[in-house]
Amino acid sequence: MSTIHLLEIEFANNGQSQSLTPVLLQDEHDTILVDCGYPDFMGLLEEAVARCGIQLDSITKLIVTHHDIDHIGSLAALKRTYPQMDIIAHELEVPFVEGKQKSLRLEQAESSLDELSGEARGHAEQFIHFLQSLEPAPVDQMVTHGEKLPWCGGIEIVHTPGHMAGHISLYLATTKTLIAGDAVVMEDGKLAIANPQFTLDMEEAIHSIQRLLTYDIEQIVCYHGGLFQGDAKQALRQLILAHTSKG
């Protein structure tokens, strides 16, 4: 029997209150963390897992949905502190997580710099420096679409590109749960596309949501927004319809 813990982490960012929802999966053999927040999130993660009666040093695996800094910012620090923790990522994400290729988010930010001026350019330059500070980490296991990991009742890898090319979501068939990463987010109680300006390929993002409809999903956990309450499949259909009608 496996347990799903939603680690709702609240923090201040540039004077504003924000929250992220990493997920912790646990069975009698493994404790698996999905995504790990910004740099210097170790203390916040420690507090969040402690509320579930768990300690960070008991985590055996860390699954990365994609290489954005709010998802892997503390990855290197966690691996350094707990080297027994295996890091798992989609094959397309591995060179970015390991720092062998420049972050796609960094490329996007740099490419937009010439179009900006004044205060907007200053904010963009700050963001670029922030992205450049991200410490790479070694990946222990690569995964691909459709792969079924045997831990915590079974974890199916769902390749959901769009936000980033190697983005994955996780499907837990035993509880009909989708851990969405940034494939979808919650805004005002509704599902939405994660920051359209940061979605590298919107058409792919919509195709990914269509792919999700092939799974028997009853609940969706969004990294931004937490647990979606309601008819998950109908909400996904409405999201597709809203974006295809715009096109």
From TrEMBL:
Main function: Counteracts the endogenous Pycsar antiviral defense system. Phosphodiesterase that enables metal-dependent hydrolysis of host cyclic nucleotide Pycsar defense signals such as cCMP and cUMP.
Stretches assigned to the Metallo-beta-lactamase domain: 19-224
SUPFAM superfamilies: Metallo-hydrolase/oxidoreductase (SSF56281)
Database matches in InterPro entries: Metallo-B-lactamas, NDM-1-like, RibonucZ/Hydroxyglut_hydro
GO MF annotation terms: hydrolase activity
Keywords carried by this UniProt record: Hydrolase
Protein's name according to its UniProt entry: Metal-dependent hydrolase
Transmembrane segments: none
Signal peptide segment: none
A matching Pfam family: Lactamase_B
Catalytically driven reaction(s): 3',5'-cyclic CMP + H2O = CMP + H(+); 3',5'-cyclic UMP + H2O = UMP + H(+)
